[in-house]
Amino acid sequence: MTDKATLTIGDKNYDLPILKGSTGPDVLDVRKLYGDSDHFTFDPGFTSTASCESKITYIDGDAGILLHRGYPIDQLAEKSSFLEVCHLLLNGELPTADEFAKFERNITYHTMLHAQFDSFFQGFRRDAHPMAVMTGAVGALSAFYADSLNVDDPKQREISAHRLIAKMPTIAARAFQYSQGRPFVTPRNELSYSENFLRMCFSVPAEDWVPNPVLTRAMDRIFILHADHEQNASTSTVRLAGSSGAHPFACIAAGIACLWGPSHGGANQEALEMLEEIGSVENIPAYVQGVKDRKYKLMGFGHRVYKNFDPRAKVMQKTCYEVLEQLGINDPLLHVAMELEKVALSDPFFIDRKLYPNIDFYSGITLRAMGFPTNMFTVLFALARTVGWISQWKEMFEDPSRKIGRPRQLYTGATQRDYVPVDKRG
Ligand code: ACO
Questions:
Q1: What is the set of active-site residues?
Q2: Can you tell me the distance from the alpha carbon of 315 to that of 310, in angstroms, rounded to the nearest whole number?
Q3: CB atoms within 10 A of CB 279
Q4: At a CB cut-off of 8 Å and minimum separation 6, what does 245 contact?
């Protein structure tokens, strides 16, 4: 086994150290390549580039494996709770009972928002997309919690992390209630994280809110399934924004903005809208033909990393059945989804391209059954992913080799030329 690779450019050889992780592919270290050889590497979309070293999440896309700090996602989704997973992602280990009690208390006692923050929501139109509200509101946290913005102080980093995990449900619920024209609901400290969130979303002053353990468990599981996913687009955005020393709340707002896109977090909304557009099982063959004719993509299918079943999709599918059964809903879209999955998984177009359902395929049906409108789906994703973003951000600050992110480019534009006055152009 060699610990270096040799790159030959013209008549010169360059040694590239090979770095080994604890599992997964080895990595060619090209950090000195430009200095030594005057060449950049070219990798738009970062399909072959590791942008950082990380100990948080491991994905083997070919085998359909997702591990957080070594623990398989299906075990966490079955046996753990979202707050326990938050502790695991942030601190590296599952908490002891005492550690968990302290962590839970810390999060619980940070859930309220500054009273003046509530008036901030009034500035948005009621019909604004809640992701637009989230991007603005989370960015504005820097203006309200200026005592935890020193990114070089580990204690302040921890307080900001706890504030974010604690306040995201309150902000997300306010974004939802505001869009519905309903009054804001204050968090209750005796409720669990997910129960509190559902109450803040669905409780109205006119009647008592009754928790439903199946829905609370489903919400918690959905949060666990979305908690982190290594160096995806939004996480890389958070790391890149944070690499300049920007405030944590501003970095998370950048992550939310990136997540909003339909190829990333916006896909769950699009997947449900696609199922609605298909409408019934008879329309599936024509729709699939349209995908093959490249008129549109099958939303909720395919993944940059998973070229096998997305392990989160299996848990999501099970959660979907549980929720629909509990609520006694016979949703025709579930039949469309199941049939579409069957058709796609037996069609060479999808088999050859290794296109499998991703987590978004079943999450939309589940969330809709729970009472969330489609434009809230990505908000829930952002809420859950906040712990992943802030854990990755924290890890970046703990890495002594941290540098400001500064990709290079292959320039193909005009070479140097002289300015031409307007009357001489033509
Ligand atoms: N439907 C139809 N064809 C697809 C799909 C799809 N959903 N996804 C990929 N393909 C095809 C591409 O057209 C391409 O075909 P070609 O080789 O004949 O040109 C081939 O499969 C490979 O696709 P790439 O674009 O190279 O795959 P990439 O890894 O860049 O894209 C992505 C991944 C963006 C997720 C893509 O699969 C997609 O757009 N899926 C739909 C949106 C979606 O569900 N996103 C959620 C992602 S999961 C998440 O963010 C939680």
A1: 303, 360
A2: 10
A3: 13
A4: 151
Residue nearest atom 12 in ligand 1 by C-alpha distance: 353
DSSP three-state, residue 369: helix
Side-by-side strand order, sheet with 65-68: 57-60, 65-68, 71-72
pLDDT, tens only, 382-409: 999 999 999 999 999 999 989 999 999 9
pLDDT tens digits for range 159-196: 999 999 999 999 999 999 999 999 999 999 999 999 99
Tokens of 268: 């769950």
If you compute the radius of gyration of the chain from its CA atoms, what whole number of angstroms results? 23
Contact between 382 and 265 (Cβ < 8 Å): yes
Positions in the chain short of pLDDT 70: 1-2
Tokens of residue 198, six digits: 């559902």
Ligand 1 pocket, residues with Cβ under 6 angstroms? 263-265, 267, 291, 297-304, 353, 355, 358-360
CB atoms within 10 A of CB 196: 23
Q: Which atom of ligand 1 is nearest to the CA of 353?
A: 21
Q: Atom of ligand 1 at shortest distance to CA of 232?
A: 50
Report the DSSP beta bridge partners of residue 299.
none
Ramachandran sector of residue 24 (left: φ over 0; alpha: ψ -120 to 50; beta: rest): left
Say what the pLDDT of residue 1 is: 55
Q: Which parts of 11-153 fold into alpha helices (H)?
A: 33-37, 73-79, 82-91, 97-108, 115-121, 130-144
Q: Please name which of 177, 200, 176, 198 lies closest in space to residue 187, comparing C-alpha atoms.
A: 200
